[in-house]
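Kindly review both lines to help learners:
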Amino acid sequence: MSTSTNDINSSPSKTKKPADSAFKQQRLPAWQPILTAGTVLPTFFVIGIAFIPVGIGLLYFSDEVREHTTDYTYCVSNNTLRDFGEMCTKVIQKDPTLECFCEINIELPTAFFGNVYMYYGLTNFYQNHRRYVKSRDDNQLLGEVSDVVSTDCIPFAYEGSNTKPIVPCGAIANSLFSDELSLLRKKDNETVPLLRTGIAWPSDKRIKFRNPDGNLSEIFKDNPKPKNWSKFIYQLDLENEDNNGFQNEDLIVWMRTAALPTFRKLYRRIDHSKAGFRDGLVEGNYTLIVKYSFSVYAFEGSKRMILSTTSLLGGKNPFLGIAYIVVGCICLVMGLALLIIHIKCSKSSNDLINVNINTPYH
């Protein structure tokens, strides 16, 4: 049966009018608070009274943390056979394969009681760059060894014409922090015992990083190492098999990228089970011994070693306490100002009740 033109013209046309529902016609019940002096002023005072003591407590715990920072970016080589008196940064800049050793004297004015940690800090190093953060192969880090490597690793995936992938691949692993730091107590010429384990998140070591089954040196014998590395993946810690390969905690700590260009990462823990270090580090003179190999010249950065204790809230960070105190003070000041304005300028209850058409508007 054919349809006439009149039938088409008579068909109902579509409309853009919303459906007659409570949601689309905005008839749903809603709560609209009326801001009055009786509700706003107590809120300001409660926030101010609560935040200031919390901020003072946070500052107290932050001040309890002892911290000492040593910048060793421009330390001078003590190698008497070569490059003596020259800055290590220039030595490795001329030849990255050279080993440069330097020493820096440190004085701790007060004792560090409790657990003491050693960190390394970098400045102007942007680990938060999008392509840098993606430059890794999580399947490879889980021990799934194969020739298939994530395209995110390029150009740090293969070495020349070698068909075996670099292990570990990617820009993050290639830029692994490689300086070796140690500490010597001058009083008795004793080396401070440092632990290489217990520095990474347990969840990272247990879930994100695994070694393949078998002998690591046999599994990775044909895989090239990253360009900037001096060791292969199976040589990171030959003394402790549980801290070798992808399970190496220095690698795990470095692979957790920092959010800001100036950051610190945990490097070692002081071994407090050794005699003379059970209570922490005593005050006095120490020597920082550095095997200098990580160059910061290209990105105009700096390097530092940090000795620090911890508190119930972690490391030293006064920002949160200061923020709480500032917000609390602002709320108290605003509350007092609004209270004065309310007392001087507000209408009385009778004035508000006896409003008529002749009442002047102010």
